Amino acid sequence: MSSSSIVIKGIGASPGIAIGKAHLLEQGRIPVPQYSVFGEEALKGECNRFKEAVAKAEADLEAIKRTIRSEFKEHAHLLEVQQMILRDRSIYHESLRLIEKEGLNAQQALLQSISKARELFSALNDEYVQSRMADVDAAGDRVLRILAGQENLALDTIQERVIIIAHELSPADAIQLQVDRTLGVVTEIGGSTSHTSIVARSLNIPAVVGAESSTKLISMGDVLIIDGTTGRIIINPTQAEVGFYSDRQIELQNYVKEINRKAHLPAITQDGHRVSTEANIELLEEVVAAKDNGAEAIGLYRTEFFFMNRVDMPDEDALYRDYRDLSELIAPGNVTIRTLDLGADKLSAWYPKLEEVNPALGLRSIRLCLHHRDLFKTQLRAILRASAHAGNIKLMFPMVSGVAELLETKRILKEVQADLSRKRIPFDKQMSVGVMIEVPSAVAVADMLAAEVDFFSIGTNDLIQYSIGIDRSNENVAYLFEPLHPAVLRFIKQTVEAGHKAGIPVALCGEMAGEPMYVPILLGLKIDSFSMNPQSLPRVKNLIRRSRLKECCRLANRALRLRTADDVDESLKKTLMRDFPEEVRVFDPNALRDGYALQRRSRKPASRKGSIG
Ligand code: PEP
Ligand code: MG
Question: To pair with 429 at 20 to 30 A between CA atoms, which of 116, 217, 302, 566?
Fold first, then answer.
């Protein structure tokens, strides 16, 4: 046990404490010898060596596919892409040609063919093809390791229970995380909405992301403590630290068990105010987790994920089946199906890359749908057909910026409805139609939008991005991503007031809704329904049940008079420590000692520390 430890600070991405040994992925370079092969026999032998390595890589990928957990089966195509790459002409045949004709050894032949493919891919100027380069590299590394006779350090080869450390986990890696072998996950890049974070949360594996330099500071086999709430990583902890965190781990597990037991109770405050607590999902399979965690409904189905990572556009029947199954699975609860929100960070294979300087401000989301009417109508038809079954589907349009856009969108919806009626295809004629409030212009005309829809849902992830003017995926300005910024709070308040004045409910479905510490302020701002990642539901519901609406309104009114996010933060932490000391103590005990620090997305350099926490 060490006498002084190193502490790294990242972003807490999936709550929980993990204590165990580090397992570094992609550790060390793969040796790539270079030599020439002469003579027919030797060349034949080298070709066979290459073919066998590819066959082994293929078989390994096949084996991994079999071990993928059922909820991630939809993602298995990520591994199939790697299998396809291994047999692609430009890689497989070209490598064999280079061995046979130029006498290169297998490793050099493979590297050269990959490098040629890279040049070709860059020249194509196609974002999808370029994004596949990471898969080409991953597939190439797999073969190179086999050729080098090196132990594969990939996730599928881990035998003991470890904390995984990686620069980044690709989506293909993330879906391979095995709960029984993964104590925790640390990555150097990524944010709380990155794929790794989402997968770790859904598997209840503690995770810290954005922990810069962790692959340099942590060595294979180092003992680590990671805290998925505070984002703290302790390398080679002292005995005192291990003791402290082991106690916390037990306390946390007991606390979580207790609140999970109550996850199905309704979210009613101490003074009788009821709010709806719902889940955000991206894939049909997540309905199970949503229900297990006490979701009363699906408040946001991000339909674009069904469209992403596939080479062609899904047809109307495939969409219809997906929506129908989802609606039947969650009934009698509702499901709010959001129409395609493609563009910016959500790209698909079949949609051509747009040359845009600012894709977040570009042809994305509802704008893209209005541009590609056939695509939009196909999705609307599928949603409407599915609505006939359980009658619980609500339709929601993302990124709407004003009334004209909304009226145009509704006109298309009416056209599709009329067409279905003409063809006597049933659909729910009473289906609620709502808009997301994600851009400041929508807030400014919220009263006018409210007259046109049945509900609002505030998308704070984008609303924060657009109102503060920061790219939500840009790490350099991540510290400015402030949910408690007075402008954001005012926008939420204005939206709620406009909605309520028109008699429509207002939901909030950005990440903010799933952050337990924002519960009092959002209740005080009169949000009617909270929609979040399924794993946050038990904690959020527990805090709602323990709150008093009257006090929350007082807190919100006070907060709305404060001038900076830090001031609001400060005021909030006082309330939290006063009203929910157990919650604060189990998730962040240092908060009680040092003052509560809500997770800010700051990038603090690694520091040397010897004390606990
Ligand atoms: C949001 O912007 O808050 C939201 C829920 O949508 P997404 O994160 O999918 O953009
Ligand atoms: Mg959004």
Answer: 302
